[in-house]
């Protein structure tokens, strides 16, 4: 059952990334949607889940603080990478790869969440799996976009897309060999939500507006946020 669900996440992620590759000429619109999708995942999925899992052990304040530390850490990392690239007079493509890595780590943890949820019960596992599936299409779009935005090649984007699509399967399989306490998983999800907020608000959003500063870009960003909100809400019913 778990492997079948992970296969579904693979194809959902892959389709999202291929969609972004096909419509590369409309990158500003896809970036706008990605900004909304990444911010939506952070606010409506990762952070609430982190609080649910970790608040009893650590308290809400510490969980939210972990998200803040994630934002600050990614900001420092991003500035360091930009400075390093300027010093070495190289392309900024490494920024895209770092962002793609953390998006892939998120997908791996999605798989971990599915596997651990099925350890508890089939019904809880099914609920978590549904929540993961509904935003995997956007995950594929986001992973492809972080590479394309930094002038990465189509081949490089495809490599990261496939890696991201495989990650949930590896995450779910890994839970056969260990048990991660839910409160620790919650803190990790909070940290990653901080990464996502930085990627969406400080990277995708300004880039989409710079490429096409028109109302349609604002609309597509809000549409991205609402799409993830509705999808996650439906998955939890």
What oligomeric state do the depicted chains represent? single chain
List the total number of helices: 8
- Report the sheet with the most strands, covering strand number, pairing sense and barrel closure: none
How many domain modules? Answer: 1
Mean pLDDT: 82
Count the E strands: 0
| Fraction of residues in H or I helices | over 70%
Query: What is the structural class?
Result: mainly alpha
Q: Beta fraction of the residues?
A: under 5%
Radius of gyration: 17 Å
- What is the overall silhouette? globular
Write structural notes for this entry.
This protein is an all-alpha fold and 237 residues long. It has helices at 2-22, 27-58, 60-88, 93-120, 122-149, 154-174, 182-211, 215-235. It has one domain. The protein is 89% helix and 0% strand.
Give the topology.
Elements: H1 2-22, H2 27-58, H3 60-88, H4 93-120, H5 122-149, H6 154-174, H7 182-211, H8 215-235
Helix pairs in contact: 1-5, 1-6, 2-3, 2-5, 2-7, 2-8, 3-7, 4-5, 4-6, 4-7, 5-6, 5-8
